[in-house]
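Human:
Class, as today's exercise, you are to examine the entry below, and be ready to discuss the fold:
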Amino acid sequence: MRKEVFRWSIVMFVVLTSIGLSIFLMLHADQYRGIHGLLTGLLVLAWLGLLIQFIISRKKGKFREHSDPVSLMSQYFEYSNDMLCVANHQGYFEFLNPEWEKTLGYSRGELMSKKYLSLVHPDDLESTLKAATELSFQKKVFGFSNRYLCKDGSYRWLEWHSYPKDNLIFAAVRDITERKAIEERLEQLHTLQAAIFDNAGYAIILTDHQGAITSANREAEKLLGYHAGELTGLNVVTSLHVQEELVRQAAFLSEKLNRPVRPDFEVFIAEAYAINPMEFEWSFLRKDGTRFPVLLKVTSLIDSKGDLRGFMGIAADLTEKKKDLEAIQQREKIIADERNMLRALIDNIPDIVYVKDTKSRFLVANVTLANILGRTPESIPGLTDLDLIPRERSNDFYNDEKVLFQTGNSILNKEEVLYDLKGNEIVFQSTKVPLRDSNGMITGLVGTGHIITERKKAEEEIKKLNKELERMVEERTARLQQVNTDLESFAYSVSHDLRSPLRHVDGFMQMMYQNIPEPNEKVRNYATKINAVLKRMAVMIDDLLAFSRLGRKELNVTRVNLNTVVRNIIDHYAHETASRNITWTINELPVVKGDQNLLHLAFENLLSNAIKYTSGISEARIEIGSRELPGNYSEIYISDNGVGFDMAYYNKLFGVFQRLHSGSQYEGTGIGLANVKQIVLKHKGSVWAEGKVNEGAVFYIALPLADESQPIKDNIPHGH
């Protein structure tokens, strides 16, 4: 480079001397950086001097024809390896040296006939206009770069060092396309490195020579319980490790290496210093002090000059794998790759990791993927999925990736399948994220695959067990239904058959009473009590018969408006409640799917109970309302401030002939709530209650909401 500057200095001296010019050059050293900047400054100032001298000399008439400065300047341009030019503020080139033709492929005539802005890449037009504006205000523009159109349709990156003088612009331009390409590749490498570092499923910790943490990925912070950035600066020995394990490892290494090894950070780097990765199981300490097992691999980081830059630790949480011996045996060992961190990362992760370009060609593939495909990692780059796996699978992968490249949307945890050479199914959760350059353009993708084969097998086994359990439940349900049917038949037979002997008892009792000439008070009292018992037994038989018939009744399902049902029932009891002080609160009720007659019977039982058990309350309050439940169900409640009940006896509440209050206080057979429960269950609903003694009760019914397609019934059933 120094020789080049010297050569250019000689050329400038020769040219200037040959035309007999005396040129005053002002060089501002702080405006130029490096040898190239100095050269550019000299060139620009030299051209400016030539132009000034040319103008002055032309006015004085002192130049000979064969000493035309323009001609000499053109000869001077021929020596430059850079692209040199003079342009005007109207947007056209005045002078161009041959390097422009070599670089862009146009002739000088073609270039000088075009406005130079017409060759600028559309994305660089705004910045170029800004630079041109600054030049028009007589400001120097150094180090500006943009893309220029070549004759073959491609673009070349150019770096400009421009100096304005009156209506002209002098510039030295250098083709930096190759340098830009190198910078782009480096940027992609850094982007890939960051993407893998941040998305790795393992804890990754970087330290300096003494064990102070310089960087840690998100998985490490999550695993150890720290917030972002809290790990930086901590010492791995004092913050993450258990002292007794350090002592034990130091003793082991001292014997192995035949030299003393201290129980501190040296136990991690004793072998790593020799570029021999260390891998052992350790206990890590979380921020809260809890311990958990990890498989830790420590590798020294060597730069391109061979100097040690620090150490990298990759830790895999063994908590779950310790519980499952088979999972531990199946895990893949972390493989050393000391040459660079990127390769060390992707080859030491047991998940699938790969990188592809925008044509879905592999650029990088890790050991895990290579093993599944039966190849080496080095043989995969340049190939596509079509070259490696059957077409039906490769087409699926390709179509997904095509959409990713078009939309920029990541693919997260999509379950996919591969088959190894032995035909074993490999199930994995695939994640693919776009890889972008510094301009935000998608240049490829980074893919990972978390293998879940064993988990899927376990899930399949659970599904089989669930199916077996469902079959057993169905069989038991069928048996229970048969038992219920038999019980209903028995109840029907008993209640039906009891009617005849009950009538006989009543008849004989009447005959006996009539055959007593003058019955005394005691006989009359006995007869009255026997008659009352016979009537109550007849009612119980009728209720039992109705209960047994209810279980055998088929549902006539329609859309039932509960607002109408409740209003009709309240109107029905209006004559009984007319003399009482009852405050009714009736909220909007839903339209449910069910049998109109049976639902009317269920709500009539509940509302009649509310009326009956508030009879001793001076200011009775009864409220009916509802709320929507998940699964297209509605919950309807009926609350009152009556006598309530003791929740200790809740299990008797919905039983046949089960009563929580004496018959002398409140009449009834105790079969009403049993009917309610049976009706609700037939509708695939549920019923429950809450209560406190002397504080009232709330009864709840959950029923399925009606479909719009079902007919609705608002009429009052016959018999009510």
Remarks:
- Confidence is low (pLDDT under 50) at residues 1-45, 54-67, 332-338, 714-720.
- The longest strand covers residues 291-302.
- The radius of gyration is 47 Å.
